[in-house]
Design goal:
This is XRE family transcriptional regulator. It comes from Streptomyces mutabilis. There is one protein chain. The chain has about 325 residues and is of the alpha+beta class. The protein folds into 2 domains: about 100 residues, no CATH class; about 200 residues, Immunoglobulin-like (Sandwich), CATH 2.60.40. The protein is built from 8 helices and 13 strands. Strand 1 and strand 2 form a beta hairpin. The radius of gyration is 20 Å and the shape is globular. It starts with a helix and ends with a strand.
Length: about 325
């Protein structure tokens, strides 16, 4: 199985590099990916060491949204070194270096959204809205997203335009999910139904920064019917934003993402990237040129595949 061997070798090489140069969250993420352990299994192993750490916290740590600091958390890091078969003190050393050089730690990026799926929060919120199935009875033909970054470098909002086709009878709603940046306040966000829909029930979860809302259609769709609708989310409740990521559960239609920056806050570099899963290393990096007049970058994927796709940027 040469392909599997090559993949393993690449994961091992990435782990070795991360353990040497850090930072901590990159090394932890690479170690978990190299061992092929889902976060729930990592949590289970930790409990056998007598250490209690939530899946949400583990995901925060590996995405850089938070850093383990409490005594219980540091015990967990030492246990992780054994569980993940890492050299002794390798993760602890990277944590110590981060404390010595706090300016090297960038604010957490939107990729911390992975902890939402891992923690089961999203599933609980969807259940509260009686979400009928993983795709809501529709296939996506096209999805175009526009993201706005404000003068304070914050994610001020986004607008989504969907074209869907029903594959069962009586489809009359879509459940939209918005993931805010670390430190956001979902209860202060606003959802706007812009075209061919109206806002229904809304659910939020403060700790994970997620907002889930129903968008009720103006008609009931029959199997085979197509439908266009548009909605927006006003955010602006978090700090500095550094990327926007969209996850896809399976193959789909066209996806386009545009990020537009305020003229008072322009990034120095932008790039697109792909990721097979939240714990997997990133690939497919490609630099994107900022347009002159409208200060925006974009990507277009004719047919999306399972995984994650996003745009990241550097401020300085």
């Amino acid at each position: 199985m040469p392909h599997a061997t090559q993949h393993l070798d690449a994961a091992t090489a990435e782990l070795d590099s991360a353990l040497r140069g850090g930072p901590f969250h990159v090394a932890l993420r690479a170690a978990i990916a190299a061992r092929g352990l889902p976060l729930q299994r990592v949590q289970h192993h930790l409990s056998r060491y007598g250490v209690k750490v939530g899946v949400t916290s583990l995901s925060y740590w590996q995405q850089g949204a938070r850093r383990p600091q409490r005594p219980e958390s540091l015990r967990a890091v030492r246990a992780l070194e054994e569980i993940l078969k890492l050299p002794e003190e390798s993760l602890i050393r990277l944590l110590a270096e981060a404390e010595e050089h706090p300016m090297d730690q960038r604010p957490a990026a939107r990729s911390y959204r992975a902890h939402v799926e891992a923690s089961g929060v999203l599933e609980r919120l969807l259940a509260e809205l009686d979400h009928p199935s993983s795709d809501g009875g529709m296939h996506t033909i096209a999805h175009h997203e526009r993201i706005r970054i404000g003068a304070r470098r914050e994610l001020t909002g986004r607008e989504s335009h969907h074209i869907v086709r029903a594959h069962r009878e009586d489809v009359d709603r879509f459940v939209a999910v918005h993931h805010g940046d670390p430190g956001c306040a979902p209860a202060r966000m606003a959802v706007h139904a812009l075209e061919n829909c109206r806002t229904g029930r809304v659910r939020t979860h403060h700790d994970t920064g997620v907002l889930v809302t129903e968008l009720l259609f103006d008609t009931r769709l029959r199997a085979g019917d197509t439908y266009l609708f548009r909605y927006g989310v006003e955010d602006g409740t978090a700090g500095e934003s550094r990327e926007y990521v969209r996850g896809f559960g399976g193959p789909g239609g066209q996806y386009a993402l545009q990020v537009r920056f305020d003229a008072a806050a322009l990034p120095v570099r932008c790039h697109r990237f792909t990721q097979h899963s939240p714990a997997a290393p990133r690939g497919g990096r490609q630099e994107l040129a900022l347009s002159g007049r409208h200060h925006s970058v974009h990507l277009v994927e004719p047919r999306v595949r399972s995984g994650m796709l996003g745009i990241g940027w550097d401020w300085e």
